[in-house]
Amino acid sequence: MNAKFPASNVPVKLYRNPISGHCHRVELMLSLLDIPYETIDLDMVNGAHKEPNYLKISPLGQVPAIDDNGVTLSDSNAIIIYLEKKYNDGYEWLPQEPVQAAEVQRWLSVAAGEIAYGPCAVRLVKVFGAGLDYDVAKQKTESLFSVLEPLLKSRDYLAGEKITLADVAGYSYISHVPEGGISLEPYPAIRAWLARIEAHPRFVGMARSPLPNA
What we know:
Layout (H helix, E strand, L loop, with lengths): L11 E5 L4 H12 L4 E5 L10 H4 L9 E4 L2 E4 L1 H12 L10 H15 L1 H4 L1 H10 L5 H21 L10 H11 L12 H11 L16
Parallel strand pairs: 1-2
Antiparallel strand pairs: 1-3, 3-4
Helix pairs in contact: 1-3, 1-8, 4-8, 6-7, 7-9
């Protein structure tokens, strides 16, 4: 157990949809930092994320959100930064050196931008039936992968040679992009990067959704 987590405290509560990549991003960080946590799955179909009690935790009615012994936060990237800052285990998940810190921040922005509008969006269409423009999302995914593939041939991780918050933020939706109808077979470097993350001893995966029909 992470020595910075007081034994007397209750586990961090993670409010989630179990097949949301944004939620998995937070669960992965909790696990990598060896922080005790419990998951609370919200019945979003029936509006549990809009209930008044939940809106006190996540004012925009979004998942994920956490309750860390009275500290409540929403937004997946904000949460993983908080967890790293509070429960850092001695490893620099968020480097302090200016150039490396900026590299990580750049990929957190990509996670909220290109990944959200590409790999996340194609999966939203195929898995959740979201009314998004699938062709646009597919094009954005392919454009992103055309940048990622050569980058990951030259380095092991998104921000350099060591795993960081950048990889935690990027992993979930890229790993599950086949559920959005896009194969990872043409991208060996991306697949090798995913495998390196999955080889971490405290890695935890997200439940797989059925692949869409060809």
